[in-house]
Specification:
With 185 residues, the protein is of the alpha+beta class. The protein folds into two domains: 71 residues, Gyrase A, domain 2, CATH 3.30.1360.40; 94 residues, no CATH class. Helices cover 22% and strands 17% of the residues. The strands form two sheets. The chain has a four-stranded antiparallel sheet with strand order 1-2-4-3, covered by helices on one side. It has a three-stranded antiparallel sheet with strand order 5-6-7. The radius of gyration is 19 Å and the shape is elongated. 11% of the residues are buried.
Amino acid sequence: MSKPSISPVGESAILLEFGHKIDLDLPFLIGQYAATIKQAFAGTLVNCTPSYTSLLIEFHPIYCSVDALTHYIQNLNLADKPQPSSVDIKTLPTYYAPKEAPDLESLARYCSLSVDEVITLHSRSTYTVCAIGFTPGFAFLAELPKALHMPSTKRHAPGYVEAVSELPTTKRRYIPAIPLEAGKS
């Protein structure tokens, strides 16, 4: 895997871009970069925010600079480090009742599947957590099975905010740790 591209984001942040497509090897690599940079620049960083394909590094401009971080990152050699040989798989309860899954029937209709087929496809898949954020414990997951892809809508379930409503297709899923009330995100 090649080194990330580095772009300044204002005077106190840089963005590392590792690619433009979700790749299941990226979460581990992005995590390695974040951990290594946090350790090397302890006390000078404000935050490291990973996403599917990038890492935003915010720093105190009094103690650090774009040039210092860029130089350090360009000399890192993490791309060749081995991935973990095992992963910790967690099984999470999933509820498909209308209150928790208000668009389940419309998804089934769109995909020409029965509700039971949608549930089976969704629940038998293993998902990779690519990032955590938005609210505490909010997990951004990698690809859904292709049979469940559907254009996203801007329609929100009553009382909830759909954080990925701007995506062109809902190929990714998210797990909110807590219900998100509209207007309170």
